[in-house]
Amino acid sequence: MNIKGKVIAEQPTTSGTSAQGNEWSKGGFVIETDGQYPKKVAFEVFNKPDVLASAQIGAGVDVSFDIESREYNGKYYTTLRAYKVEVTAPAATID
Questions:
Q1: Who has the most CB within 10 Å: 22, 48, 83, 93?
Q2: Cβ-contact 7, 59 below 8 angstroms
Q3: Sign of dihedral through CA atoms 53, 58, 64, 70?
Q4: Over the stretch 15-68, which tens digit does the pLDDT of each residue have?
Q5: Nearest-angstrom CA–CA distance, 85 and 82
Q6: Sign of the C-alpha dihedral computed for residues 74, 72, 10 and 55 taken in this order
Q7: 80 and 65 in contact (C-beta within 8 Å)?
Q8: Is 45 helix (H, G, I), strand (E, B) or coil?
Q9: Are strands 60-72 and 2-17 parallel, antiparallel or unpaired?
Q10: Model confidence, pTM
């Protein structure tokens, strides 16, 4: 799936080591869509630092993502996992 918007926030990056000894990192960002009724959409990025680097605050982006839901204690939790971010308008720089 794809969605377009402007990056309005970045989530902190965390990292660690899995039980199998593999290194991992996870971060995220939030975009706001255009239109009469803009929506805020939060994405998670797992082990893709190049994707996170593209999602700079203020940049217009086209995000490709997968939707994943999982059950825990009878409740379902949904994650939007971004795997590609294309910058459509660079973030404005202040001189």
A1: 48
A2: yes
A3: positive
A4: 999 999 999 999 999 999 998 999 999 999 999 888 888 888 999 999 999 999
A5: 7
A6: negative
A7: yes
A8: strand
A9: antiparallel
A10: 0.86
